[in-house]
Structures are given as C-alpha cells and as structure tokens.
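User: Let's play a game. I give you a shape written as tokens, and you guess the letters that built it. Ready? Here's round one.
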C-alpha cells in the first residue's frame, strides 16, 4: 500500500480509544479561553509561550505542568466544554468508542466538588452520544502520589455516580508508588462493581506490572512497556489475553523511548499480545489517536494487516459487551472490504 493510502486507511478505519486522560486533552487555546472567563491569570503570556513549555525529560516534569493546567477548570461548563472538544475531535478521527480517564482528586484539591466536574463531563458525553453517535465509558483514576485514605475518600464520593462509571484506574507518578499501596482500595472498588485497570511499567519497574496483575487484579495494563523485558510475564499476558494500552507519542515525549523505532509495539504484536495504540494526553504530546497510529506505522513499518489488527484489538480490549464487540468488529471488516474496492 502506498504511503498516502495507508495514512487514509489509518484515519478512516473504525477504532476505539482506551487510554485517554480528559485533563490531557486541554488544548492551550481552550485553556486560555476558560482562564479568561474564570478570571484566572496564567503564568504564560500566550498560547505559543505555553506550548513552548511542553518539553519534558520525564513523567514528573509533564505531570507538574499538567496539574497546573487543570487548575483553570472550575465550573460544570468548563468540564462540559473540555469533554465536548475531545469527543468532537475523536469522532472526526473515526473513533466509535472511547473509555475516558478522569482524575477526581485533582479537581477536589482545586476546590471543585465531585458533582460539578462529574456532571460537566457526563452531560457532554450524553450530548455527544446523541449528536455524534460516539459511545463513551468513564474510568475514574486514583492519583498514586496521594495516600490510601485519599483514594478511599474519593471512592466514597463517587458512589452516587457509580452506575455511570465503568472502572477505576491508577495514574500519576509511578516511581516510588507501587500498586501495593492501593490493594485495599482496589479490592473495595471491585466489590462495588468497578472494572480495575492501572498504569504500570511506564517508567516504573516490571515488578509493578506483576503487582498490578496479582494484587490489584487489573483487567488491562495501561502502558506496560516494561513487560518487554520479561519473557515469562509476556507469555502470561498473552495467555490470559490481558490487553496493553500503549501510547507511542506519550512515550516519545516523556522519554520512555528515545526513538519510536525502539517502541515495543511491534514486539508485543509479534508475541501475540492484545496491544492497542492510544493518545494518553494528546494536547501535551503532539497528536491524537490517528497521529499516534501514523507515527508508529512509519517508525515500525507496520503493514495494513497490522493496522487492522490494532483496530480490532482496540474493540477486543474494551469493556463493551460481547454483542457490541461483534458489531464493531463487523464495522472494521466492512470498512476493509470497502476500502479495497475504492
Ligand atoms: N496522568 C496523565 N497522563 C499520565 C501518564 N502518562 N502516566 C501517569 N499518569 C498520567
Ligand atoms: Zn496515561
């Protein structure tokens, strides 16, 4: 397939996104607009100056800026606008289904009550499902740099909205904050019916992936890059079909990989892992989902069959029902046959 053709194929194939932080979709232009209407003065004078600060040596340097950005979000309307902007973009990229992370503790610490941010996000989802036809689920993440008591408190505050949240996740500073710290919170959340996932093996050691699987009983590994170095773990992940939600441009920007040519995605696909590609925090890392897939396609010389596999994996790895999976996998097959003949 020629270069132009494969880019068009990537852009139009039906797909799902499973690793996306809503706070990480906060584009500088929208940040300035919302800051102005909330009478908040940003440290940066212009969109360009802000964008120039998006130069990170590691995860923590990114998180420091990302949490500052989120302080601008105050009202239900702010969360609505943020979520609607992402869903509009996602729908334009032929994303049919997305499972979105949100960070309650960030907003609670900023003085925004749970119902304010939650209703803003949720009302945007309801509107987007109706108008754009995209399907959305929500995953509430605990910040791992905070303590267990704060996570338990957040879990309690989420209970009135429990039926509108499919899962729980674990994000923020990985090194020094092992999954073990949240074993009891995850146990409780699972009793409430939340699906457990966690960031593991992004920057942290491979042991954290083992811990997240064994102690937190996660159903999906967010990132999981470090499992590449553990053949035994890889065969276990393949055997149990535990998906990985990989984020190539994020890995490049946070220097988890030095070059996309070294990205483990292809290694995972070759080892029968249900690997998926995602954008993580697209406003900060220079690309939404299609840009991520295009970047790895070019760096790793992925072929059309690899792209089809990634699209199918994205639905297989999602938390939708078996019946819905069948429907979306059918859409992928229909797209592939249709594309051949055009
Ligand atoms: N929060 C937002 N993006 C994150 C990432 N890539 N790793 C950990 N926490 C995050
Ligand atoms: Zn993430």
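Assistant: Ready! My guess for every position:
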């Amino acid at each position: 397939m020629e270069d132009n053709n494969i880019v068009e194929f990537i852009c139009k194939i039906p797909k799902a996104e499973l690793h996306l932080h809503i706070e990480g979709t906060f584009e500088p232009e929208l940040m300035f607009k919302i800051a102005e209407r909330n009478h908040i003065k940003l440290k940066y004078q212009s969109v360009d100056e802000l964008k120039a600060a998006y130069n990170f040596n590691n995860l923590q340097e990114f998180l420091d800026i990302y949490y500052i950005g989120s302080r601008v979000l105050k009202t239900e309307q702010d969360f609505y606008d943020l979520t609607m902007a992402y869903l509009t973009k996602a729908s334009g990229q032929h994303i049919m289904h997305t499972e979105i992370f949100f960070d309650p503790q960030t907003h609670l610490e900023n003085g925004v009550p749970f119902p304010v941010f939650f209703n803003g996000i949720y009302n945007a989802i309801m509107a987007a499902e109706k108008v754009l036809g995209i399907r959305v689920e929500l995953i509430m993440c605990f910040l791992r740099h905070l303590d267990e008591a704060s996570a338990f408190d957040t879990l309690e505050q989420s209970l009135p909205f429990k039926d509108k949240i499919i899962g729980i996740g674990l994000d923020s500073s990985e090194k020094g904050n092992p999954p073990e710290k949240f074993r009891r919170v995850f146990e409780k959340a699972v009793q409430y019916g939340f699906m457990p996932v966690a960031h593991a093996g992004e920057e942290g050691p491979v042991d954290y992936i083992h811990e997240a699987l064994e102690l937190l009983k996660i159903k999906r590994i967010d990132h999981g890059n470090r499992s590449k170095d553990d053949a035994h773990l890889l065969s276990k992940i393949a055997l149990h079909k535990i998906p990985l939600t990989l984020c190539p441009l994020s890995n490049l920007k946070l220097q988890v990989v030095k070059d996309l040519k070294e990205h483990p995605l292809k290694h995972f696909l070759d080892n029968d892992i249900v690997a998926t590609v995602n954008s993580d925090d697209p406003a900060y890392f220079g690309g939404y989902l299609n840009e991520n897939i295009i970047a790895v396609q070019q760096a790793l010389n992925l072929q059309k069959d690899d792209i089809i596999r990634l699209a199918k994996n994205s639905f297989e790895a999602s938390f939708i029902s078996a019946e819905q999976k069948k429907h979306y996998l059918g859409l992928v097959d229909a797209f592939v046959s249709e594309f051949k003949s055009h």
